Amino acid sequence: MIAATAGDTLLADLQAEGRARELAVEELHALLLRAARFEVSRRRPSLPHLRGDELDEIALEAADDATLSVLRRLDEFRGESRFTTWAYKFALVEAAVKLRKRAWQGREIPLEPEQWTGLSSGAPSPAATVEQRDLLARLQHAIHKELTPHQRQIVVAIALNGVPIDVLAERLNTTRGALYKTLHDARRKLREHLEEEG
Amino acid sequence: MDLEQTLARLLGPVGPEIGCDTCFAELDRYVELELAGADADAAVPGLRAHLAGCPACAEEHESLRALVAAERGD
What we know:
The structure holds two protein chains of two kinds. Helices cover 71% and strands 0% of the residues of chain A. By secondary structure, chain A is mainly alpha-helical. Chain A folds into two domains: 4-103, RNA polymerase sigma factor, region 2, helix turn helix motif (Rna Polymerase Sigma Factor, Chain: A, Orthogonal Bundle); 126-197, Orthogonal Bundle (Arc Repressor Mutant, subunit A). Chain A is elongated. Chain B has one domain. Chain B contains five helices and no strands. The longest helix of chain B is centred in the C-terminal third of the chain and has 18 residues, at 55-72. At the A-B interface, helix 2, helix 4, helix 5, helix 6 and helix 8 of A face helix 1, helix 2 and helix 5 of B.
């Protein structure tokens, strides 16, 4: 367990100069490597095709990148959480992004509807199943009629075909934030359309 | 994929929702409030809705929460 005071000392040393800072950067890297390995081990069952040394390499790369990000953004730390908690998120996200990217490496990104059929319903009754299928059909129609081609691609890829948002952002040369905004606007349009239909 | 899950992913969460960048900025504070048993949703409105609508941010939230909880011996 890392006490809050240990994190505070680390932060102060990272903001210092000379040998103290060098040691602090090493400590930060070790901390972030532990977080990256934690993420890799959590996801390991979903990545059976990756060897142990490949996973270790991903964790190390994530820790390296996260260390640079933390050092670059130290002045953004507002002290609203422990410093270690704040720093961990950089390593976890770096590792998660790299693992999703690896999982989709060499795979085509499905931007066209593929999954409209074959969806299984866990609804509690036949009537509820019919209702769900009716809603899906209305949504399918609305996606084609109401959304722009770009919105349609994003909704289909992320919401229907399960493409991770960061993988899609990289392939489309945009940012995760920008893609989520598109997805959010498209979903709102779909909900509004369904409400208008009654 | 499950039909209900697909419908939820197509329609997204209802109500005000923050974006991925704000979610990342607030995630550490949110997780610590959650683990302390405080009202994290009141402190960071729209984050819970975002987690419902964004599978990637939801995964990262789960990981941070699990890591911090493990370190504290919860």
